[in-house]
Amino acid sequence: MSHESPARNALRSILRGNVLWLSVVSFLNDAASEMIYPLLPLFLVGTLGAGPAFLGVIEGVAESASSFFKLLSGWFSDRFRRRRPLVLAGYGIAAAVRPLIAIVTAPWQVLAVRFSDRLGKGVRTAPRDALLAAAVPANMRGRAFGFHRAADHAGAAVGPVLASLLLLVFSGSLRPVFALAIVPGIITVLVVVFRVREGQAPDDAAASGRRLEGDVPADSTLRALGPAFLRYLLVLFVFTLGNATDAFLLLRANGVGVATAAVPLLWGVHHVSKMIWSVPGGTLADRIGPRPAIVAGWLVYALTYAGFAVASRAWHAWALFVLYGLFYGLTESPEKALVASLAPAGVRGSAFGAYHAAVGIAALPASIVFGIIWQQFGAHAAFLFGAGLALFASVLLLVLVRPADRSDEPESTN
Q1: pTM, to two decimals
Q2: Tell me, what CATH number does 335's domain have?
Q3: In a 10 Å sphere around its CB, with 0-12 CB exposed, 13-18 middle and 19+ buried, how is residue 261 labelled?
């Protein structure tokens, strides 16, 4: 008879199979992505001459366009019972197009590259999350998603450090840094090819009393997801309307005194904070339920955005980026755990697709409106707008998604 503690069994379930290898994949992919992303606002504004409003358009269009592919790929993976090929295609597209930023000469070309990069994200995200949800028992999903997000953020912390080192090597030239992002991208694709596998969770099949995949007709997917899930998507949509691209935070940090050369390091510190809080946030969701954790995270978000509204010194930006990492830790894994809890196993790919699509669709007006408010009324008004919507969404989540929906009740670990 085994006398191992539940905590050790949980850790063993997480540190193997798809959870482990998809975490490695996300580490490598984000290292490649974050070699570019924190420098992109400065490249657009300083080198290519774009303004804050166009920055909002680029990020909003790219994220919203990808939302359609998240929805489609999630449905496709449910319908045809195949998730891994879509994961591979998504990471492959991103690895191929991302380094092309090195050769662009106009803002519209950046939009084209970002659109293609986000298309890859749209193709891979919902099937990947469905693979993660199927890799562990239901009462460990928060921790599994938390571990995955921690690895993702670790890569996002490494990427800016690599970028800063390469900026020293290339005397501050951005284009060689962008080009070298192809190296971790290629390794990402190889790990998916040789390590990630199709999989399913037996407890999901048993609990639902039907096949894990393909058991719900395509024309009844929305009905199968249920009203509680759709209310949850509505609340997420409202919150995201005030959650503009983080590129604005980097622009704000530069505006209050953070030197250009230090911006990648600031972004790296932020991701270290996200990494530290990811597993505790997922564990909290497993213990008390996802909903309270999400509300706490949104309150931290409101506080952080209010802080950016009044920030006036470089150290304010550093402190706020660290605090902003706590918001991610309290929301990323719990939000996905709540999706998995609400959605029947046979439509979980579609559920994750709908979740990411709701967030992505709201990203377009969110970034455009934020950029316009900033340009017309200043950063102070833009960040207070985001903080206010976060507070409103927190109230909506408490009112519209109730414990009686069973969606945020932690499952027994016995």
Answers
A1: 0.71
A2: 1.20.1250.20
A3: exposed
